[in-house]
Amino acid sequence: MRAVAAVGAAALAAGAYRLAVAPTAQVLGRTVARCPTAAGQLALTYDDGPNPRATPALLELLDRHAARATFFLIGRWAEREPGIVRELVAAGHAIGNHTHTHPRLPRLRAAAVREVLHRCRGAVEDAGVTFSTLGGAALMRPPYGRRRPGTLRVVRAEGYVPVMWSVTGYDWRPGDSAERIGGRCMGARDGDIVLLHDGWSREPDADRSRSLAATRMALEHHGARGARFVTVPQLTDEPWAARQSQQP
Q: Which residues are annotated as catalytic?
């Protein structure tokens, strides 16, 4: 009986952990994950760029559909591709901090979290631009979505609003087709923030052709019903965002 009870307790603990780290969960600290009041609007977001193999093509695709998106940049890739960083901003897209090297932030001490944020900010500012803001705070997304209360306190203290997502494309899964990825994105509802990738933390020029194809499907599907694709700051009304970005 003790063994059964132990297994049950472990299962409950594992389930509680999964709920706590889910992208829309707020128990670890407030984040922006979706905007329930944004009628007829969606926010496409892309992590791990800029990527010379994918980001320029993605910019062309978004422009053809008059869509705006939000890009969470890795600092060391921004150092390699400052021209693409400038192109993102010039095209009207929002950009945010995705750290310099894409570590799991909960494993780091506060000083190390600050360092990876500072280095990414420096790379972006060296390109001649600054991060987009929401309610006066710069946009930031934790790598892998991993966070803990202490992590988010450091992020906010450094002047950022943490941005998560409510729809996952799962475009990093090697076995998933573009159609399956696109199907998930087509299932988004008004006010959702969709997670896709235009890069990869391990390669500066990763193949993201499936993500581009999924983006095209989402643009065509939601565009046909009259939805608009906007940046996270455009999606989210500031009073709501300010409440979400504060500690409970």
A: 47, 197
